[in-house]
Amino acid sequence: MLGLVQLKGGRGGIRVALGPNADPDRVGGEIVAALQSAAQFLGSTKITVEVADDSISPALAAAIAGAFANFPRLSLAGIGVPKAAPSRKGDHEPKVLRQTIRSGQEVMHSGDLVVLGDVHVGGRVVATGDVIVVGALRGFAWAGADGDETTIIYAQPLHPTQVRIGGVIAQGGDAPEAVAAEYAHIEGGRIVVEPWSSGARQGARRTRVPR
User: Fold this and answer.
1) Is 70 exceeded by the pLDDT of residue 173?
2) Residue spans of alpha helices (H) in the chain
3) DSSP string over 136-186
4) Chain-centre distance of CA 57, in angstroms?
């Protein structure tokens, strides 16, 4: 078993436990290796991924989702911190949805919200924490719905009709749609959009900034 990932079982079911400061560039491959080593025992089951840190980065969520895509008989039941660990957003664990949010659908959650799928035009995702869309965001997204302006909105790509972070609102731009992962956050009292990378918050600004 590789050191970064541990496969555990108990009354709460099967869990994949990640070590502290899990590197998104490594964690996907190690989850795949851990699940392959126990594939004959797992069958068709739901599995929860536990992270040692108190927040989930968009890159980490994408790596976890990508690893589970290799195992169609396994279902990713959720991503969160162990019960005994404090959460950055209070006592609310992240909510993970493995679905597409279509026009007319709305999802609200107190805490971080992870959508493993697209958000279509007319779909709405609202969270008091970060909004992480492991897919295309073309609808409406609101992060920090309780007023937290340190939250972010991440998508692959991010081309919304409207986004909100805390109390700040921005409309989607008319520039050509990007294909890479992007994130929106507040800087200088307004929402800016940047390409996502390991140093994203220090990266260069895109010219397409929702206003």
Assistant:
1) no
2) 24-37, 39-42, 58-68
3) -B-SEEEE-TTS-TT--EEESSB--SEEEETTEEEEPP-SPPP-S-EEEEE
4) 7
Q: pTM of this prediction?
A: 0.63
Encoded amino acid at 187, one letter: E
Give all strands of the β-sheet with 131-133 in edge-to-edge order. Answer: 95-97, 113-115, 131-133, 153-155, 182-187, 190-195
Q: Which amino acid is at 104?
A: G
Bridge partners (DSSP) of residue 145 are: none
Write out the two tokens for 113.
């919200």
Reply yes or no on whether the pLDDT at 109 is more than 50.
Answer: yes
Could you tell me which of 139, 132, 75 has the C-alpha nearest to residue 109? 132
With both helix axes pointing from N to C terminus, report the angle between 24-37 and 58-68 in degrees, rounded to the nearest 10: 30
Range with the poorest average pLDDT among 74-88, 91-105, 182-196: 74-88
Q: Which two tokens stand for residue 12?
A: 């709460």
Structural domains in the chain? 5-80 (3.30.750), 95-202 (2.160.20.70)
Burial of 11 (0-12, 13-18, 19+ CB in 10 A): exposed
pLDDT for the residue numbered 142: 94
Q: Any idea what DSSP says for residue 3? A: T
Segment of 24-28, 89-93, 177-181 carrying the highest mean pLDDT: 24-28
